[in-house]
Every structure is written in C-alpha cells, then in structure tokens.
Amino acid sequence: DILLVTDGDGPGVEQDIENAILDCLRLEVPCHVCGVGDPKKGTQIQIGGGDALEDVTTKMQEDFLKSVARRTKGEYLGANREIPQLGLFFDETLK
C-alpha cells in the first residue's frame, strides 16, 4: 500500500500523480490518499528558502484526490486543516 499526503494543487502535480496512478494500477497497489488543506478557499503558504522564498496560494483539490484513491482501490481520508489520524486510518483500512 502507498499513502499519498497532499493538497493535490501545484504546477505539474496532476501529471506527476497520474504517472504514479498508472504505476499503482500496473502493480495492483492501492494508493490511499490523505487530503490536506482547505477545499473551499485558498491558503497562503511560503515555499522555497532564503532569497528564493515565495508566497503562494494553494487550495486542496478534493475531487481529484478522491478520484486517485478510487481509481487505485485505495481509501480517502480528508484531513483538511486538521492533523490527520494516520495510525487510526491505517488500523481501520488495513484490517
């Protein structure tokens, strides 16, 4: 099993994840997805460091993340802006 923790937003994310989905399907490995962030409004974050520090806005792409889990026969956990309870999630998912 694979656990993907992401908001599903950013340049190139969908294509990168699509390549991973194809690998999961080929290998028959479920990809469980933990969606983090706010699905309703953008959140301001800083990326990079030093002189390359940049302010960007990101928004969780929940429908996309749910589709990743569904396509790979994984489960979806919407943590949103809370700390995800990953231990409990895996205990319940991998019984």
Explain how this protein is built.
Helices cover 35% and strands 27% of the residues. The protein is built from three helices and five strands. It has helices at 13-27, 62-71, 86-93; strands at residues 2-6, 31-36, 43-47, 54-58, 76-80. The chain is globular. The chain starts with a strand and ends with a helix.
Q: How would you summarize the topology of this molecule?
A:
Elements: E1 2-6, H1 13-27, E2 31-36, E3 43-47, E4 54-58, H2 62-71, E5 76-80, H3 86-93
Parallel strand pairs: 1-2, 2-5
Antiparallel strand pairs: 3-4
Summarize the structure in short.
The chain is α/β, with parallel strands linked by helices and 95 residues long. It has helices at residues 13-27, 62-71, 86-93; strands at residues 2-6, 31-36, 43-47, 54-58, 76-80.
**How are the strands of the largest sheet arranged?**
1-2-5
Please count the helical segments: 3
**Overall pLDDT level:** 91
Structural class: alpha/beta
Any idea what the radius of gyration is?
14 Å
How much helix, percentage-wise, in residues?
25-40%
- Straight-line distance between termini: 13 Å
Summarize the biggest pleated sheet.
3 strands, parallel
| SSE pattern, N- to C-terminal | EHEEEHEH
Report the strand count.
5
Which keywords apply here?
about 100 residues; alpha/beta; two-stranded antiparallel ribbon; 3 helices; 5 strands; globular
